[in-house]
Amino acid sequence: MPIDYAESCEAFEWDIPADYNLPAVIDTHAEAFGDRVAVTFRNEAGAREERTFADIRDDANRFANALAARGVGKGDRVMHLFPRHPDAFAIQLGVLTRGALVVPCSSMLRAKDIEFRATDCEATAVVCHASLTEMVEPVLDSTPLETLVVLDGEHEGWESFSELIDGESADHDGPELGADDPMSINYTSGTTGQPKPVMHRHRWMRCFELVNGPYWWGYTQETDFSDELMWATTGTGWAKWFWSPVGVGLTTGAPQFLYDGAFDPETFLELMAEEGVTRLCAVPTQYRMFSQLDDLGSYDVSLREVLSAGEPLNSESITDIEEAFGITPRDGYGQTETVALVTNYPGIDVKPGSMGRPAPGMGTTIIDVEAERELGTDEIGEIAVPVDCPGIFDGYFEKPELDAETFSGEFYRTGDLASRDGDGYFFFEGRADDIILSAGYRIGPFEVEDALVDHPAVAEPAVVESPHDERGHVVKAYIVLAEGYEPSDDLIEEIQTFTKEATAPYKYPRRIEFVEELPKTSSGKIRRVELRKRERERVE
Predict the structure, then answer these.
(1) How would DSSP label each residue in 503-539?
(2) Domain 433-539 is in which class?
(3) Per-residue pLDDT tens for 378-396?
(4) Which of 261, 291, 341, 516 is the most buried (most CB within 10 A)?
């Protein structure tokens, strides 16, 4: 049943027990419905495995015992580096059961990135998949890492995860944990500098259960999970892993699907049909690739909800999914530092291009970038959240100077720009440093990109400012072409005319460059900062 937004906002309460912690939640699940399948896992090689909630709890305790024997205890930092894996949750929960902090790392990182993170947070242990140990080995001598655990295989000098837990007790007498105990250090993507160590406490998971569960995924205490299967396509190294697989799947007791394999639209749709996925959360790039399939509507999927996160979802993709499956994709917005700040909650009338409306309890608003005052309708400003909101982080790991800078005012400032209409819907305008000033106009890159991607020749665009003698800057579009199209002056003119008709004429890209690929962070976000640098270098 759709949520009554106004009623929910008025009734919302931050119910976070002082003794809340994630291992205790899973222990409760294991006792209440331990035989429920928590994870159904498949990979490219054809393997298929399942883990119940009792399996996860027991293996987590076994791993916690093994870590205790190796001196890992409360407050220690344990890095992990592995793909989507059926034992991912047991490993993370085993670390948390010891009172240690998990430090997720993506398989898209490099050795220097591992070195930076391990040194920055002084991690003493790492769990690494056998296929990724080469990323860690070169920097072991320059980091505090001592306890080395390898997953799915053997590696000289490393201990095997499967052998470590073999024979260990499924009970563990660990330290007492509460909602305010540190839980994780999630490094930001680093679009403009070195990644920052965002520290979250156990209450973060309760906030996901209270906000992301009902106001994004549509899961409430009344949900019947007997015919539910959620799939968030994120990897284990990202905050989004905590946003959905951990923060919603584990906390609510929802069964979920994990797939370890490269993205292929046909394969993903076949998996959804075969496994009976009912709720999907993917990224805009994946939805755009779904949209390019001529037979999208022919797949016999059981989808009830379709979610998008990472960057705004273009209106063309929304329309294609609606026509194929009769479901309107719902965008959600938040950061590594937060839970969902703005969502298209279940039952909402989705406005194409909109992030939705502020999630209950968060106090999300839009403020003037300079004066830090709240703005009204149709004014572009910075998305901000009151600093005392429980749904945001409360510090960077051992970085008091960053804490002082971040929490010195009334609001936590996200660095993202948006506007809101008369109905309270937010519309993403770009990063604060992405806004283009051209001949006195303020132009947000997303609106232009949203218009560009509707052209059949455009597979993926990125819009930035480009220095101009008369206008100061003009709109420049870097474009990855769709299959079957070749760069030409005629195509440039066609795309420019198309964009003028789709949005305000002054926003069209006066300059267009076709590229094979766009520069991105390891989490898949477009590095517009790099593209802006290219444009500056052209005139220097």
Answers:
(1) S-GGGS-SEEEE-S---B-TTS-B-HHHHHHHHHHHH
(2) alpha beta
(3) 998 999 999 999 999 989 9
(4) 341
